[in-house]
Amino acid sequence: MVALAPNREIHGYLSFIEGTMGHEMAADNWEAMRALLHYHAHLLEGTDATETLRYRLPLDSFMVQLMIEQLEVPDTSHWRHPADEWALKSEEYYHRDAGWMARFVHLPAFMQAMLPELQARWQKGLARWMGVLRLVVGEEVATLHIAGTDLRLDDVPGDTAFTVQFTPQAFTQLAFGYRAVDWAVRSGQNDLSADVLAVLAVLFPQGHAWIARSDWF
Fold first, then answer.
1. In degrees rounded to 5, what are phi and psi of residue 162?
2. E strands of the chain, at which residues?
3. Burial class of residue 75 (count of CB atoms within 10 Å of its CB; 0-12, 13-18, 19+)
4. Residues 152-196: tens digit of each pLDDT
5. What is the DSSP letter of 6?
């Protein structure tokens, strides 16, 4: 299902519909999202399906914010405790080191590929720090040299490098935004200053990555 503007420009779509579940949806604005929601509800007319429609969306997405702002329950007279009721409810599912859990094949190659993003995060964060971070992940090492706004990868550790140890599992979740720095550093024998923790938080902010249904395998 595609949501079109009057000029035939595409502003959203809904796909992989299974009953009340829409596995993939995107919309640029509320008009497009409303049309998609109405279409999904129309498909269920005359069935025994529940009144609740469900969608797989990133919790911090623009679409979720649109629904929070626009959706409401027309009749709340049956509510006993309004704080426990809802027009929109979110759910998260967790499994330890499972689901989409990945593993690094070659840490230096991964860090080299991620370098432009790390540089952008560092410059966007307006941080000013000078030092060397030696990231030890399992038996592999990646060394970041930071001087002011400049950030680069270099195999030379330096005399005063700050060594940060991670298990491969912890660093994978840190690098892809599933875990915070404070949690990840506990996987190794680390005694880090507040400055180093702040630097790591700028480079590896917490925030979910998202894999759309059409990219599942």
1. -90, 115
2. 2-4, 10-18, 21-27, 54-55, 129-137, 140-148, 150-153, 162-166
3. exposed
4. 998 876 678 899 999 998 999 899 888 899 999 988 778 899 999
5. T
Q: For residue 201, give Cα distances in angstroms to 28, 126, 197, 198, 212.
A: 30, 13, 6, 5, 26
Contact 19, 10 (CB under 8 A): no
Domains of the chain: 2-73 (no CATH), 107-203 (3.30.1050.10)
Q: How many residues does the chain have?
A: 217
- The tokens 């590929």 sit on which residue? 113
How far apart CA 186 and CA 19 sit, in angstroms, is 43
- Separation of CA 24 from chain center: 16
For the chain, which ranges sit under pLDDT 70? 50, 97-102, 157-158, 209, 217
Neighbouring CB atoms inside 10 A of 129's CB total 17
The backbone torsions φ and ψ at residue 27, rounded to the nearest 5 degrees and listed phi first, read -150, 140
